[in-house]
Design goal:
Order of helices and strands: HHEHEHEHEHEHEEEEHEHEHEEEEHEHEE
Radius of gyration: 21 Å
Distance between the termini: 47 Å
CATH topology of the largest domain: Rossmann fold
Structural class: alpha/beta
CATH superfamily of the largest domain: Vaccinia Virus protein VP39
CATH architecture of the largest domain: 3-Layer(aba) Sandwich
């Protein structure tokens, strides 16, 4: 039975994403965007409205419930967001009211109103702006909403590179919206590339990929252990692959190795594929979008490498890493190895011992710990 429109937002859940007391499915930014969009979407068909990075479906389902829109196009970088949107749509009786698409021309083609949850990274916002400006209708209005503490003037500059007019609304409940009009189409800047002499790698990155074209310090810590990792392995998995640095260097250092790079971020998967291609190992690195490698068969790999996240939004939680450790335990053959790196303060070793198998510290400094766990 459909949930009344006024109650839809209150019925939404984060599931299947991480749950914690200070993590919510709908926030003040969602509500502000929906309120500001009300007059704009009044004269639009559903196919003329698009949403980018709708966290758990509040924007798409809010538009459907309040305005009766169907066919709203939605792009979400994280697979868990897509699945939450689908589950929430079923929960409130709005299944089929929107359709999920990659961040690309089809998402924005002919759109007259686009709602965007502001990403953390400026490059992520830049890629979104470039996609919209290149394909949306000439009279498009883009609303980019975020928490005031995360909004910077640099965001105005990024939008100003793709739109002729950028302004800001007044803040409400610590959220604010940037309004962009007058699209100025131009060539795409993505994926970007950076050559790293050490370790001799070209890193490619789409805007929303973690660390961009840099190699983050946690990954560098894990790379120092590369020569020690499961010398007899024939299959490897980079779990939460990001831009594919670990997957690519594993494949390049071991010609006999087949590597699967898995991430739930669409930007990460596209970046990992581009990084593998740029370094000549695209034939042995396969990048797929998956949540904790759920579609990979049990006991099918010899080696797992993992640089797990320890932040969900602004919260420091261990749940995301715990899910990846459990996935590694499922995927590894008996005797296979999980190599992981984590913030030393988090002390994951007891969990790794329990979930995967005997675990030893392979490297440690005040900031990062590298461990190897052998599957029982």
């Amino acid at each position: 039975m459909p949930v009344p429109a006024a109650e839809v937002l209150g019925a939404l859940r984060r599931e299947p994403d991480v749950e914690a007391p200070d993590l919510v499915a709908v926030d003040a930014t969602d509500r502000l965007l929906l309120d500001l969009a009300a007059d704009l979407v009044a004269g639009c068909a559903g196919g003329e409205v698009a949403v980018v990075d709708d966290s758990y479906g509040a924007l798409a389902l809010g538009l459907a419930a309040r305005h009766g829109l169907t066919g709203v196009r939605v792009s979400q970088d994280l697979l868990v967001g897509e699945r939450a949107l689908a589950a929430n749509a079923e929960r409130v009786g709005l299944a089929g009211s929107s359709r999920s698409l990659p961040l690309g021309p089809e998402l924005a083609a002919g759109a007259r109103v686009v709602l965007v949850k502001a990403p953390k990274a400026l490059d992520a916002l830049r890629e979104i702006a470039e996609v919209i400006a290149a394909s949306a209708a000439p009279d498009v209005t883009v609303l980019v909403g975020g928490r005031v503490k995360h909004m910077t003037h640099a965001m105005n500059d990024v939008l100003g590179a793709s739109f002729g007019e950028v302004s800001a609304t007044l803040a409400r409940q610590k959220s604010r919206v940037l309004v962009a009009r007058g699209p100025r189409p131009g060539p795409s800047s993505f994926p970007r590339q950076q050559v790293h002499p050490d370790p001799g790698l070209t890193v490619c990155a789409h805007g929303a990929a973690f660390a961009g074209t840099k190699i983050d310090v946690g990954t560098r810590a894990l790379l120092r252990s590369l020569p020690e990792m499961a010398a007899d392995a024939r299959t490897a998995l980079d779990l939460g692959c990001g831009t594919g640095v670990l997957a690519t260097l594993l494949a390049r250092s071991r010609p006999e190795l087949r590597v699967l790079a898995v991430d739930q971020s669409a930007a990460a998967v596209a970046s990992a594929a581009a990084t593998a291609a740029a370094n000549g190992v695209a034939d042995r690195v396969t990048a797929i979008r998956d949540d904790a490698a759920a579609t990979v068969p049990d006991r099918s790999v010899d080696l797992v490498v993992c640089n797990p996240p320890f932040h969900v939004g602004a919260a420091v939680v261990t749940t995301a890493a715990d899910r990846l450790f459990a996935a590694a335990a499922r995927l590894l053959r008996p005797g296979g190895e999980l190599w992981t790196v984590y913030n030393s303060a988090l002390r994951y070793r007891p969990a790794l011992n329990r979930v995967v198998g005997p675990t030893r510290v392979a490297g440690q400094d005040p900031k990062f710990t590298v461990t190897v766990s052998r599957r029982r």
